[in-house]
Amino acid sequence: MAIRSYRSITPTFDSSVYIDESAVLVGDISLGEQSSIWPLVAARGDVNVIRIGKRTNVQDGSVLHVTRKSKQNPMGFPLIVGDDVTVGHKCMLHGCQLGNRILVGMGAIIMDGAVVQDDVFIGAGSLIAPNKVLESGYLYVGNPAVKKRLLNDAEMAFLKQSAINYVELSREYLGQ
């Protein structure tokens, strides 16, 4: 795997984390226990920080990045991802905040300053506009994404199960 320092800061994670050898992680990134980073993910914590919670999986071909601090935006936009989050294949997360138990559908894009509260399902190909807030308990779809409906009980349960599925798969890859 390509774990690279930037300005003497190196990504941090423990032995329970799976990172595919084709993934690239650079700079100020931390990964919570039992999280997984799959093939061809690019994560660059160079001009701000990336923080990923426990049991979160970032699937193949996704890109994670941040926004630098500036006079107009003194804090910039870090990338903060909570626990039990599933980020589908080929997603773009850029300077946004995701809570816990979220599923980001394949090919979705979440822009700077967007906030996704806990227990949200984002449909494949959706675009979450800058600074948009997605409320807990809903399905969002479209470009730009709109609130479609409340999640049902099965969908709420699936948010957690999806994360569990990837923890189990990553254990196999780690030979545990």
UniProtKB/TrEMBL annotation:
GO molecular function: transferase activity
Keywords: Transferase
Keyword Protein biosynthesis on entry: no
UniProt KW Oxidoreductase keyword: no
Protein name: Putative carbonic anhydrase/acetyltransferase
Lineage of the organism: Bacteria, Pseudomonadati, Pseudomonadota, Gammaproteobacteria, Alteromonadales
